Amino acid sequence: MKIVRYQTTGPPSWGVLSDGVVLAAEGTPFVDLRSTGRPVGTVDEVTLLAPVTPRTVLCVGRNYRSHAEEFGNKVPDEPLLFLKPPASVIGPGDDVVYPRISGRLDPEAELVLVIGKQARSVAAADAWDVIGGYTCGNDITARDIQKSDGQWTRGKGFDTFCPIGPWVDTEYDPTDVRVSCIVDGERRQDGRTKDLIFPIPFLIEYITRFTTLEPGDVILSGTPEGVRPVQPGNTITVEVEGLGALSNRVVAELAAQSA
Questions:
Q1: Domain carrying residue 25
Q2: What is the 3-state secondary structure (H, E, C) of the chain?
Q3: Which residues belong to any copy of the Rv2993c-like N-terminal domain (predicted)?
Q4: Higher-confidence position of 9 and 89
């Protein structure tokens, strides 16, 4: 099943995607969501929103050896984790805002794990049971701020810095798929999930040892090499093989209005 969150003329709603058509759904995502069979429109006729509304956005840094090395960083001995604020989450087609206080903005294409049931102290062998599905994500980073701060909250936490979408696939096999970042038609990042330093079951066990994850929470699993900066006017597309494409345009932050 492909779960979408969409909007037409009313409030946001949940739906199920079938052959390019959004069908209205009832129930709770990752709990008892089911299609009503009533078509709402094609994906081009509705506005697709971020397909999750996470309480926790957990990210894994330097989880591809080649990405760590391209920035001259040590490959971590344990997962390098950080959080993004839920306010950073946007959906397909939304604008990524380039902050006026930053001089370098980098996109980072990632496979996103979506939690399907409450998860605490989950063994690696049981990890697949708590994952509700998968989607595409973009860990937008103000690289200069990340480096100058010495920790990553601000550089990775601006509003609009976590595009997610376009849908959540609940029957997807993520073990060896291509993860790409394309900017204005140029493929920059191109990796495969089989090269993750810390694989998905290990991540689930490691993370749930210290925090409880709830349905709809997300884990951005890491980004491959090829990270390069973007500018206002560029369009970033994250592609995860078999999951679709997530595109967002970069726009300059407007100057603050005087009172």
A1: 2-48
A2: CEEEEEECCCCCEEEEEECCEEEEEECCCCCCCEEEEEEEEECCCCEEECCCCCCCEEEEECCEHHHHHHCCCCCCCCCEEEEECHHHEECCCCCEEECCCCCCEECCEEEEEEECCCECCCCHHHHHHHEEEEEEEECCEEHHHHHHHCCCHHHHHCCCCEEEEEEEECCCCCCCCEEEEEECCEEEEEEEHHHECCCHHHHHHHHHCCCCECCCCEEECCCCCCCCCECCCCEEEEEECCCEEEEEEEEECCCCCCC
A3: 1-51
A4: 89
